[in-house]
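Q: Hi! First time doing this. I have a protein sequence and I read that you can turn it into a structure. Is that right? Here it is:
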Amino acid sequence: MRRTAARAAAAGVAAAGVPAGAAASFPAAGGGEPGPASAPAPFPAAAAPAAAVPPPVQQRLQTEFPFELPRGYVDEAGVVHRDGVMRLSTARDELVPLRDIRVQENPAYLSVVLLGRVITRLGTLPLVHDGVVENMFASDLAFLQDFYRQINAEGHTRATVECPHCAEPFEVELGGSRLGES
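A: Yes, that's right. Below is the predicted 3D structure, encoded as structure tokens:
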């Protein structure tokens, strides 16, 4: 009878998720061999596994950034387009323009081709491409170049520095504040 009771207790432990060999390592409540009325208690962690670990919080990466051009792009019909959206650049966005013959002949053209790839919307234009970017005013091109650097460099071009006189921390803009300055 003792073997039958031990097997029943082991089966109860196995049903609770404990391997059969581990059943013997649980002492009975009465102190001797496990009996029919003294089945070992399941692991404490098995009682409430959902309450112990909170669900992970998902963070969303912002990949598109709205902007407003200082002057605006004027299309063939004379309509001014100022508001737009630029997405984060990928490695492919930076590599593909290097094969462009215009960039190979004039490296300064790289930013025009690159901006044509990452600007996803500009006003009501149906499509933004490098031809649109090359017909923008110089002030708008400089703005977009700075904006590109800001969003692709961890979202900003500011650095925290310390005043050499009073040791107070403050932020400085590294991207330049005047047109063409970087």
